[in-house]
Structures are given as structure tokens and as C-alpha cells.
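Please check the following.

. . .
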Amino acid sequence: MSENKDPHVAESGVEGVKFVYDFTEGNKDLKDLLGGKGANLAEMTNLGLPVPPGFTITTEACKTYLESGEEPAALRDEVSAHLEALEAQMGKKLGQADNPLLVSVRSGAKFSMPGMMDTVLNIGLSDKSVQGLAKQAGDERFAWDSYRRLIQMFGKTVLGVDGELFEDALEAAKSAKKVTVDTDLEAADLKKLVTKFKKIVKTEAGRDFPQDPREQMDLAIKAVFDSWNGDRAKLYRRQERIPHDLGTAVNICSMVFGNLGPDSGTGVAFTRDPASGHQGVYGDYLQNAQGEDVVAGIRNTVPLAELEQIDKKSYDQLMQIMETLENHYKDLCDIEFTIERGQLWMLQTRVGKRTAGAAFRIATQLVDQGLIDETEALQRVTGAQLAQLMFPRFDEHAKAEQVGRGIAASPGAAVGKAVFDSYTAVKWSRSGEKVILVRRETNPDDLDGMIAAEGILTSRGGKTSHAAVVARGMGKTCVCGAEELEVDTKRRRMTVPGGHIVEEGDLISIDGSTGKVYLGEVPVVPSPVVEYFEGRMHAGADDADELVEAVHRIMAFADRKRRLRVRANADNAEDALRARRFGAQGIGLCRTEHMFLGDRRELVERLILADTETEREAALEQLLPLQKKDFVELFEAMDGLPVTVRLLDPPLHEFLPDITELSVRVALAESRKDANENDLRLLQAVHRLHEANPMLGLRGVRLGLVIPGLFTMQVRAIAEAAAERKNAKGDPRAEIMIPLVGTVQELEIVRDEADQVIAEVQAATGVELKLAIGTMIELPRAALTADQIAEAAEFFSFGTNDLTQTVWGFSRDDVEASFFTAYLEKGIFGVSPFETIDKDGVGSLVKAAAKAGRETRPDLKLGVCGEHGGDPESVHFFHEVGLDYVSCSPFRIPVARLEAGRAATQSAGSDHR
């Protein structure tokens, strides 16, 4: 290979690309090419850990197959070459009759997608080789158990046979034998089961179960490739925002067996508790089993700590390996292992999924241990996780009827109606119901129901079961392994201790932090993290828990590192004070229309109904002191910090009665011949101001230009309030924002009027006022002519809610309910553009406007005040394009602060979590 060649190019030059890597060739940094599983198997092999030999087919092979519908021409030869090398190393041949090599075929994408894609174990078994395996192992029962597992997994995964047919046959075999667990079935029972399974395959798939081991392997590889585009995999990627074009690698690994008897077994281990973050021995172990038994929760496991009594040698070796891996990866590691007759084998490791609380605790623990620095700690947590920690929790002092307790798999307080299948969970959720998905155990087919539910409750499985792993990844409340609860999915009910029956639709509550299950609805109380942000709990105090301390430390570091300032969207002093407690550095959006409601609506009606200039001025004179009082209170609450006041934005008809209700009232009054003169005038005004599309009509700056005195009254109120606050030795920093500007001429006219009013107030009060005047950029034309608009604006605030509507041609109030669900399901949207900024469309306008505006006015202040200002992914975008601040609702301020810090320190190669 020449020195300038890409390391991933095959020496043979066949098609130019190398599609297969031995485990000895890769490393953990090749996740794009080898997938997470393959890269980490290679890394463990490099570390000298006991990994069964094998090789990985790259994601490039998968992408080629998915694009063309055919495997790359060179792939078969490369697989054959690596298979021959594996056979030579193992001293066995794939599926040979007397001494068979068996392999697993396992998926492994760049990002962990637990259970979403396909795996087939025991490839290479056939009617002939099962005899050889029995002889090789000296255990006939083991061989036939492995064979029935292969037919079952292969039939479901590769041939598309309904998995319940195999499950029903297995249950029938246990029933006939009068046993409850599959380990009580003997070799003769399993032989009969194999015959039954083959008949199921023949009937359902229309073909015999393949006896050629290479055909088994090739079909399994294709099935894994195809599973990348399976419904559940696509749904999971949309949920986790994983790109759809990555493809999956395929790992071919020589089989080691945990189902060889009591001195064998399989398990999953965590180097720290993924639910709490605490250090200790965490995981599950199952004797005489293969890996799918643990994840599926078919049999209840024992805690990993019990392995010390079962097999101390393997336990001690596992503890040493866990320490090695955590120190090497410098993070919580999730490990799969098998013990084959006392020999420990490592089947997988990855940086483990964890709950939000565990993420913050582990990040600070690793800093204290010297494994990572504060910059890396900041990358180990997310704003979404912080938001989860701010959700309410159950009131431990409330009267509640506890009916069970399982394993606290993923924290949170979830209340909802019990449902017993995913279809019902989705259906009821779309109808506005909150539901708890109750299952014996979940499997990948339950994903859509898990997403729809408030929480998940299972009677089987542990912290490493499918339900637990997926729930933690989604931040969904989950209680697993509540054994005393008898779940009957066919009759759609659950029996709790004492005989009480929970029917579908009954309210239940589950606590993912304690594992407790309650009947009915349990009241909730604020999170301690919210209490910390509001100043009711102090980090370092005796009553502060370690979670609050961890949050405090990471937030302090984020605040030191971030460049973006964080302001609040707040319209009154109460919200402003709360925002300030949450860390707001000013108000980025005060919506003055909220000040015109309530008792003031009558004054607005008088303004709208005014027939003469005198009547209009009288209404404005009455509104002026009320507006001034609003601003005095706001400037006092935010003293020393900027307050951006948006002048009246919505259409005036929003302050008038509903046209239908008013028409009916007037019609009824006229029929009684006692019509109210004011109602008649109101109805005329409503008709006069009625617009087919009011959000694109007479609103924003257009109101200020068409309704004389409206904007000048508001500017006067702001200026007089600022002068009064300054006279009281305060430090008001008011900024006046003109909404919905589309051309610089609109802004210039309003600005000239505002400057005149400010000068008048300065002259009358003797107080010098420095009130910045700027505009919202919320129309495409404003963004495209930002260089011109910046000549008259001292700041831009991007109103990304309206900008998204006008760029897409969406009416937010209508489209989210009508077709967004379909767009998300079809993959047109990965996420709603109102939730996370559309970087390609809306974002490109923001970027261009920011650049053009600053070319005209280098000191132009730039911010965003749409709800995107509190969205984690959007905050990173606003940091990248050079905005000065983001503004969001008070509750989202801590999230924005954290993400602004992460954006400032984020490395280009940080992993998706």
C-alpha cells in the first residue's frame, strides 16, 4: 500500500475499498466505518481483553447495498477470506458436521440503537452439525437448545415469520412438560421443538430452514443490512435525531455459549449505576442462558453482585476488566459478557446510556477522579437532560396507595391511564390522553408505544432489559421487574397484590426513581433542581443533595465559558424576577400586547371605536399611565440589565370580541328591540378590521403607521418610566423594538417619531435617556435587506417563530395539528421546525442577515427571541453564527445557559448522546 493511500483502501484494489476488518485491525475511533460495536470490539481486542475472534463488515458495505439493492461485488470474497482465517484460528469450520464453528451475526451502527436492528446467534447449526456440537460440548440438551434458538431467531429476523408462533410453540412444550421455564426442557423436548419450529418456517416462509451454513450467514448479513431501514429503526432514529444515511456495520463473531449449564451464563454490567450514577456493582446475570434472554427479560435475572458467589474467579476478572474499561474510556461503560464453563468472554462495550441525574453526577465524579477536565464534563451533559431534572416529582408526604415495587430503571414521576399494548398507547395519546404502557416485558416492536407513553411499567426484566435501556435513552420514566404485578395483556388488565384488578383505562402512577407503583394519581412537588435555581436550596448546604451540587458545579463552569448571554421572554415584574433568579441577564422580549388585556380591554375598544382625533387621544391618555406603571415595575425588577420592549404586535381585532359571538348577541338584542349602541359599533369595528389572514395583515409596525399615536404613546410610557427609575437612583436599560418591519422606510418613520418623543421626555424631566431602538427580523424580506435596515437599527432580534412561519408558508396554529404528525412519521421532518431551527432555510436567513447587518453597522447587537432561544440544538447554531444573546421563557433559561457553555467548548468530534 502506498504511503498516500487512504488506510481504508484494500491492498488488493478490488473495487478500491476495503469492506471487511478483522477485530485486530480496528479501534474505537473508527465508529463511522465499523459502527460502535465493531469499533469497541476491536478496541477491547487491542487492550488484550478476552474477546471471541471475529471480523466486521463496514457501514460502507451497508450503504452500497442499500443504495443499489445489491451487495458490493468484492464483499463475498472478502468475507470468505476472513472466514477462512477465522476457521484456521479456531481450528473449526463453519457448520461442519463433526467439529462445527458457530458464529453470531450482529448489527452495530455508529450510535447505539438498542434492539432496533437485527441479530442472529448460532449461525452454522443444521441437522448434521447439531450432532457434532452435542459431541463437542458433551451436552446434547445444550446443542438442541442452541439449534431451536437459531431457527427461532433466523425465522423471525431473516425470513419474516411471526415471532409469536415460535413463542406459542415454546409455551406449549413447557405446558406439556408441566414446567414454567425453558431450562427445564430436556434434550428430547427440544428435539421435538426443533421439528415444530422447522414446520413453522416451512409453512410461513414457504421454504425449508436452510441447512447450508454459508447460506445462513449470507442471508443473516443481508437481514442486518435491511434492518437499518426497518420501521422501528427509522422511528428510533427520528426520536433520537440520528442521521438516516449512516448505515450499520455487521459483526461476525465466533460463538461462545452461556447456555452450557450452571457454570455458564450471560450478563450485562455497568461500571456505575446508569440510573443514579453511583459507583458500585451494577448489572444483571443469568445462569445457563444466551444474551437475548437477559435483554428480553424472559427470565428474571439475579443482581450482578451475586456472580461473586456463583463464580468468584469470573467475577473478580470481570471487576478488573470493568475498571480497565472505565479508565480507558473515561466514562460509564455498558458491558455485555458471557461465561462459558468458567471462561469469561467480552462480547461488547460502549459508553453507556444513563439518566439525566446520573449524567450530571458521573461528569463531576470523573472530574474529581482526574479522568476528565471540566471542559469534557460539560460535553457529558445536555440541556435536554437538565430539563428532565427540572420536571416535578411525586410528593413523598402525599397519601398514596402503593401496590407494587420494581426496579427503578429510569427516573421521573409519571401518571397516566394503564394501557397494555403499543397500538392503544399511540391511539389514546393522540387523543390527548396520558398513558402508562404496561407490559410483561417490552421488545423493539413496542417502540412507538414507549414514545407515546408518559412512562413504562413491566413485570419482568431488570436495569439492562430492553424497556430500561430504551427508556433511559429517551429520558422516559420506567419501572421494570415489578414481579408481584400479574400482567395479562390478552385480557388487558393487571392484578396487584391483594387481588385488586387494574383494568385498561384505570389511572396509575409510577416512580422511576424509587421503583414504586401506585393506584390513582399521586400529587407532584417541584424538583430540587428547580428549587436550587429559584434560590430555595443552596449548593453546599447541609440539605442540598449531591445532584444539586453536581448541577451547580456544571452550571458554574458553563457560565464561565459561554459567550452567548441568556435573556428571558417576560412581560411582567413577577416573571422578570423569576427569570432573574434562573440566571437571566436581561429581558430579550417583553410583549406589550399582554399588558392590554383584562381591565384595559375596554380602553382598547374605545381606541378602536374612536371616530375623532379627540376620542382617540383621550383613550391613549388613559392608557399612558397604565403602560408607564408596567414599565416602572419591569425596570425595577431588571435594574441594571437590558429590557427589550416590543411595541404592540398583534392585529387590533384580537382585542375585540369574537365576531360570531358578537353577531349573535347583536341579533338577539335587535329581535328584542333593545340593541346596545356600543355593541353595534363594536360589530362594525370587528367587520372593518376582519382579515382573512390576520397574521399577515394589519399588525406590527403597520399598526404604528396606521393608528396615529399608538406607538408614540408606548414610547412615551417607556421613556417616562426610565426617567422615573433613573431619578430613583436606578439603572434602567430599556431597548425599544419595532415589530414586523419589512423595509427600512417603515423603521425610519417610526424611529423619527420615537426619537422626537424621547427628546420631549428628556426636556420635561431633565434626565438624559439612552434608549436603543431596533427591530425584529421576522420576515424574509427583512432578512434579505438587513444591510439597509441596519442603517436605522441599533439591534436586531430575530423573531424565529414568525420567521419560520413566513419562510415555510405555515400557519403554526393550524399546521401542527393538521399534518405535522404525518410529516414527522414520513421523515420529511426530523423534528418540527418550530421546535428546532431549520438551519438550511430559516437558519440561512438568520446567518445572512447577521452578516449583512454587521457589515453596515459593526456594533449591531444581535439576539433571538423566538422559542428557539431555549432549544439546545438551536442555541448551538446561534452561537456559531455570532449572535450576542438568546432569549427564552424563564423555565428554559438554565437549559440555554448550559447549552451556550457547551457550544463554546464543544469539540468537532464529540459523540452523539
Q: What stands out?
A: The radius of gyration is 33 Å. Residues 1-15, 907-913 have pLDDT under 50 and may be disordered. The chain is about 45% helix and 15% strand.
